[in-house]
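Researcher: Re-running this chain for the archive, since the previous output was lost when a drive failed. Same request as before.
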Amino acid sequence: MLDFAQNALTAFTTLAQNNSGGGGGAIVGILVFLIQIAIAVVVIAGLWKMFVKAGHPGWAAIVPIYNIYILTKVAGRPWWWLLLLFIPIVSLVIAIILMLDIAKAFGKSVLFAVGLILLFPIFACILGFGSAQYQGPPAR
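Model: Regenerated structure tokens:
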């Protein structure tokens, strides 16, 4: 019986020594998850304030797909542009045009639109929490 306990203890310590790297991976995974949650909260907050400024309900920022529909409305584009965002490659062009239109709708420059394209969470918060006023969709 003592021999069995000794073998079990040896096996357990060997496993513990061999699996010491798994804990580090779990910590990194948790940190990445927490960073993603923080970014999502920032995006939701920025969109919420942006939607309210544009006269749309703020809660729309937390509803998937519907928030993109509201973005098309803020940009002054038709609802079916939402469908174009599901087409590969076309979606990149449509997203860039939407960001340009959103920047113009808030009275911002093309350079600001580039910021929206590259760093959307930050620039959405600048639009939402900043002094920018919604001026309506840009004229075509």
